[in-house]
Design brief:
The complex is a heterodimer of chains A (230) and B (239). Chain A has 230 residues and is mainly α. Chain A contains ten helices and no strands. In chain A, helix 4 crosses helix 5. Chain B has 239 residues and is an alpha/beta fold. Chain B has a single domain, classed as Rossmann fold, CATH 3.40.50.300. A six-stranded mixed sheet of chain B has the order 6-7-8-3-9-10, sandwiched between helices. In chain B, strands 2-1-4-5 form a four-stranded antiparallel sheet, with helices on one face. In chain B, helix 2 packs across helix 3, helix 2 runs parallel beside helix 4 and helix 4 runs parallel beside helix 5. Chain B is globular. Chain B starts with 9 loop residues before the first strand and ends in a 6-residue tail after the last helix. The chains are: A mainly alpha (230), B alpha/beta (239).
Amino acid sequence: MSGDPSALQLVLTGDPVLFAIVRLSLLVSLTAVLLATLIGVPAGAALALTRFRGREAVIVVLNAAMGLPPVVVGLAVFLLLSRSGPLGSFGLLFTPTAMVIAQTVLVTPILAALARQTIEDYWVEYREELAAMDIGPAGRIATLVWDARFSLVTALLAGFGRAAAEVGAIIVVGGNIEGFTRTMTTAIALETSKGDLPLAVGLGIVLLAIVVAINALAWGARRAGERLAG
Amino acid sequence: MRAPASDLPLTFADAKVRAGQTTILDVDLTFNAGPPTLLIGPNGSGKTTLLRAAMGLIPVDAGRVTWGGRDAAPPERRAIVFQRPVMLRRSAAGNLRYALAAADIPRAQHAARVAELLALVGLEPLAARPARRLSGGEQQRLALARALARNPDLLFLDEPTASLDPAATKQIEDIVAAVAARGVKVVMSTHDLGQARRLAGEIILMHRGRIIERATAQDFFAAPKTKEAHRFIAGELLV
């Protein structure tokens, strides 16, 4: 375990390279979770409240999409953004934006599927009461999302966990370019394969610490919110 | 803003509601302004179905329901308290603000109306308490206040005291009497004959989706006309 002391040193001294990698990782994953929330939660709510032919099939596909293989998503986004692809002219491949897009694709089904389930449970309970108050479709979705907000925090955390932990999608579309698209997970993969363990272990420690810290923060916020709002 | 048109009279013209092959409601009646109407009858007699159709929450399969002569009027001038009302995940005052906003009442009036409604149901000290943490009786009173937020002409109450103790029941009955005295037409279902005696201006006895007898409370209890009413008042089971 000769690598451990220097890994710890890197963490404790706030090594600038390490710091830049951590910063980019958080920026990419948190942005992806934010975008996925804005797309997935209203979509899941709409699916919870509507009835149409093929709805069950949509739910099955959506639930299955929670397990999309990151490498496959990376490949699809790669094809989309590559120079000869439909969005090639934007020149986004191997940029942090491409990584955000790929992670958004990965996380959106998780948020949509979990939000659909949560909000449907609330809908069963609220349905008549909201109808009696003459609340329209948009108002229903807003009310249900708001009232389910504490349960939806868990969905958000699941989405963040997925984004922060994955390496397959961002390494394909980001390219793991040092100082530009290198994140904690891609760096760990690279450094490990190079046999340079101190940075890999340091990044691993930081990654775990961040995931735990964010979950603790969200849990605290949820508990405080529940105390105030019931 | 709300239309000034009233939802009264509420008329069921040969209205039928079916569940599969079974007719669960088959009534022809009109509600006008006046003292409270109490719906009594055994479980499954159609009381709740009548209230839900009167609210416009379920369509009738035959006949018509009209409010102030209009079909399918938006439920602006009527409100309902369900047997087990759902408290929204907000404070007691937040639930009332929500109902006021839903009724398009201008935001500038909300604070005054919330205070007035909380005072009416005696929940001022609990304004900031999460509604889901209130006791059963407090939740029922809040549900009443929430229903009254839209200034209804017609207030439907579906066994609002079914799961409450006598003290909480008394509080609800006092509020209902006060609301009725202000000119709101109350239509309320109950299993409690004592409650029907205390509150009713008139009684409607239902059985198997039909109206068996409709009379002023005085006449109904003093001289019931049907054998079902005799038996029901005597405490026998109508099956």
